[in-house]
Design brief:
With about 140 residues, this protein is an alpha+beta fold. It has a single domain, classed as Nuclear Transport Factor 2, Chain: A (Roll), CATH 3.10.450.50. Helices cover about 40% and strands about 35% of the residues. The protein contains four helices and six strands, in the order ααββααββββ. A six-stranded mixed β-sheet has the order 2-1-6-5-4-3.
Length: about 140
């Protein structure tokens, strides 16, 4: 009986640690998204891009097809949103954050950009990976 109780205690504590690690990961991912939202709303596209993996393997998939690489993604954003009137104020609605594996999550959500020249709304799926201790977007699908 003592062995069974000990086993249950161990399993409960291991499961508690795993859940708290996952909660910490999700909190850190939300922090990246908040920084991006604030940078975007300040018309700071370069600051917004800090949430992305600065690598040629980064992929962005949108209505105009696939953009490969951090620099190309930055250029795409700068071309599509050249002024503060274009960036406007960004808000997110995060609908789901799910663990793929250790060090990787996907995020499903909606974005809303409020701006004088016309609001923009859409949905997104992001893949986050922990790289060198930091959570970075390695793939972005947005409409």
């Amino acid at each position: 009986m003592k062995k069974l109780i000990l086993l249950l205690c161990i399993l409960t504590s291991v499961s508690g640690f795993a859940q708290s690690d996952e909660e910490a990961d999700i909190k850190a991912i939300h922090k990246v998204l908040k920084k991006q939202r604030l940078a975007w709303s300040d018309n700071d596209i370069e600051g917004y891009m800090e949430g992305y993996w600065k690598n040629d393997a980064l992929k962005f998939y949108g209505p105009n097809g696939i953009t490969k690489g951090w620099e190309a993604t930055l250029d795409r954003y700068l071309k599509a949103y050249p002024t503060e009137k274009h960036t406007g104020k960004l808000s997110f609605k995060i609908n789901d954050v799910s663990k793929i594996s250790d060090g990787a999550y996907f995020v499903l959500g909606e974005y809303h950009i409020k701006r004088d020249l016309g609001n923009a709304d859409g949905i997104f799926m992001l893949v986050f990976k922990k790289i060198n201790g930091e959570w970075k977007i390695i793939a972005d699908t947005s409409t």
